[in-house]
Design brief:
Order of helices and strands of chain A: EEEEEEEEE
Structural class of chain A: mainly beta
Distance between the termini of chain A: 37 Å
Oligomer: heterodimer
Strand order of the largest sheet of chain A: 1-9-8-3-4
Helix content of chain B: under 10%
Number of helices of chain B: 0
Largest interface: A-B, 22 and 26 residues
Distance between the termini of chain B: 36 Å
Shape of chain B: globular
Radius of gyration of chain A: 14 Å
Number of strands of chain A: 9
Radius of gyration of chain B: 14 Å
Strand content of chain A: over 45%
Order of helices and strands of chain B: EEEEEEEEEEE
Largest sheet of chain A: 5 strands, mixed
Chain lengths: 113, 116
């Protein structure tokens, strides 16, 4: 799986938007971009995924650069419950490699009250 | 359905002992995964089942590790002759195999193993 690069940590204030960046310059045409987050003392939780177009769901938005070499996870109004480690993961859905997730160290998001 | 469950949540064992962990996936999910996470790191893939068939094992899974999913439902992960380096959080996840839901993996709360 292609590698991703994320900042080690970011800080935000409650009720403000948060933009979490991810670089993936070696992304291939069949790599989906996935975001998971892990709250303290819990297992990871799926957030959102996309291929080429921007995506929205109830948790967040995913903005994908036109060349697909970077993406940004957007939390529209951060809450204290959003404090977590956020992982950006590329997942190739071709053939038999479409099942496992390859996590990096992620970005630790701190939300200040 | 209450999600993926794992038992026990915590296990402390002495070096050299054997331990076994259990994972109960979401009932209609036929894919099951095991990951291991050490402090400050993201989870690392260990192994994957589709129904009862174990389709891949990571190089991280030494001969002391064995995983089973005998009836395609719950799974067990056994570590024999535990070493201090086995201390980690062991995470189980499940997913359906049919798109688009198969893109999401649902994780359990993990079993934290401490080897003394």
């Amino acid at each position: 799986d292609a590698k991703t690069t994320q900042p080690n940590s970011m800080e935000s204030n409650e009720e403000e938007p948060v933009h979490l960046p991810c670089n993936h310059s070696t992304i291939s045409g069949t790599d989906y971009i996935h975001w998971y987050r892990q709250l303290p003392s819990q297992g990871p939780e799926y957030v959102i995924h996309g291929l080429t177009s921007n995506v929205n769901n109830r948790m967040a938005s995913l903005a994908i650069a036109e060349d697909r070499k970077s993406s940004t996870l957007i939390l529209h109004r951060a809450t204290l419950r959003d404090a977590a480690v956020y992982y950006c993961i590329l997942r190739d859905v071709r053939g038999g490699s479409n099942y496992k997730l390859t996590f990096g160290k992620g970005t630790l998001l701190t939300v200040n009250p | 359905d209450t999600g993926v469950s794992q038992d026990p949540r915590h296990k402390i064992t002495k070096r050299g002992q054997n331990v076994t962990f259990r994972c109960d996936p979401i009932s209609e999910h036929n894919r099951l995964y095991w990951y291991r996470q050490t402090l400050g790191q993201g989870p690392e893939f260990l192994t994957y089942f589709q129904n009862e068939a174990q389709l891949e094992k990571s190089r991280l899974l030494s001969d002391r590790f064995s995983a089973e999913r005998p009836k395609g439902s719950f799974s067990t992960l056994e570590i024999q002759r535990t070493e201090q380096g086995d201390s980690a959080m062991y995470l189980c996840a499940s997913s359906p195999s049919i798109l688009p839901s198969s893109y999401e993996q649902y994780f359990g709360p993990g079993t934290r193993l401490t080897v003394t």
